[in-house]
Design brief:
single chain; alpha/beta; FAD/NAD(P)-binding domain; eight-stranded mixed β-sheet; 13 helices; 16 strands; globular
């Protein structure tokens, strides 16, 4: 099999890229393939909080998807976030646009079913790609047995962290990311007073990490703890131990979880935090989402930037059509537009993380004075 464009990874970034390309796919059936190593539905370690803006962006290229998400998945809604410091002070942020609580098991499967309706798109599930090799006639995508699975002229890496596409075509790219680790679990039988408020707890000894409790209903929540790996190793912190320490020592958390049951087990994953937009393109390929190290270094959110980057890449590819030589196509327009949108914000947030790790009392100060309008406006703009 040979395709013009191969999209490796069917998470939000890969799906957004497909939707950004859907007009091209319809006009050129059989030219694009979407590949994933798993069979859907499949789970993905995540905090499950999805910003409103992600669905707003998807609606622009796939009208009606926002309403279908609400109708089919009936997600929990959060309209505010409360930050709790170990000083005892707290700060509540009322968001302009609400967010949704959707398990990635449900969200990713819903998105996959949406693109399965598209005419002209080839989808390959249960197809792990272990290496991408550039040849004279195209890119060779190879599986675990090193046998060629298919060929393509342009590769889109949306395969998360660590990305096979990035490792194969841009060695060392992901090592430059400021990585973090997180664990999360689903708890039932909780005592949640306000399921529309997501809760974040901060302790100086775990700076710049935080503990979260994201309600999915009055009795169920996604609960987790995450921290940058650099500081985690420096402070010799075990994520699981830190998680249970929060549960035991934070009075509010202890009360909410006093009769709760953990469903399954705690699960963990790696987050590639951005330090600003580096070059995410090369001749014949481009990266989106986690593969492009686009995770927000302050909040840990990856879905919003994955969706934005996927849609943008799809649009830039359409603008480059008709293709003279996909193997040599270097989408500088994608790189420039992505940097113009995200570079300043991500770089600033990376600096905030480093600053909060060195001066952890700054978080307490922000919480203490956060009700002042100019401070709250700053928080909403940057965080």
């Amino acid at each position: 099999m040979k395709f013009d464009i191969a999209i490796i990874g069917a998470g939000p970034g890969g799906i957004a890229t497909v939707l950004g390309l859907k007009d091209f796919i319809k006009e050129n059936p059989g030219s694009v393939v979407l590949i994933d190593k798993a069979i859907f539905p499949r789970d993905k370690i995540c905090g499950d909080a999805v910003p409103y803006w992600a669905f707003r962006d998807l609606d622009l290229v796939h009208p009606g998807i926002h309403d279908r998400v609400k109708e089919v998945l009936k997600p929990g809604i959060f309209t505010r976030t409360r930050l709790q410091a170990n000083s005892g002070r707290s700060l509540t942020i009322n968001w302009t646009g609400h967010g949704y609580m959707i398990p990635r098991y449900e969200l990713d499967n819903f998105l996959m079913q949406e693109v399965k309706k598209l005419e002209g798109l080839t989808i390959l599930e249960d197809t792990p790609i272990r290496r991408v090799v550039k040849t004279e006639v195209g890119f060779s995508l190879r599986g675990p047995d090193r046998e060629e699975v298919l060929q393509a002229n342009f590769i889109i890496g949306s395969d998360g962290a660590p990305s096979t596409v990035a490792k194969s075509l841009r060695p060392g790219f992901q090592k430059r990311a400021q990585s973090g680790s997180a664990i999360r679990g689903y708890f039932e039988n909780l005592k949640i007073q306000d399921p529309t408020t997501s809760l974040i707890y901060y302790q100086r000894k775990f700076a710049p990490g935080y503990f979260w409790l994201f309600p999915m209903s009055e009795s169920k929540a996604n609960v987790g703890f995450g921290m940058g790996n650099r500081w985690r190793r420096k402070k010799n912190i075990n994520l699981t131990d830190a998680f249970w320490k929060f549960v035991k020592e934070e009075p509010e958390v202890s009360k909410i979880l006093s009769e709760a049951q953990l469903v399954g087990s705690l699960k963990g994953g790696i987050l590639p935090f951005s330090k600003g937009i580096e070059s995410v393109i090369g001749k014949g390929y481009a990266l989106v989402g986690d593969a492009a190290n686009l995770n927000d270094p302050f909040s840990g959110d990856g879905i919003q930037n994955a969706v934005y980057s996927g849609i943008l890449l799809g649009d830039c590819l359409k603008q480059a059509y008709p293709f003279d030589d996909l193997l040599s196509l270097e989408l500088t327009s994608y790189q420039q537009k992505l940097a113009a949108k995200l570079h300043r914000s991500l770089k600033f947030k990376s600096r905030l993380v480093r600053l909060s790790s060195r001066l952890p009392f700054l978080v307490d100060l922000v919480i203490r004075f956060g009700n002042q309008k100019w401070v709250m406006d700053w928080i909403k703009k940057w965080i």
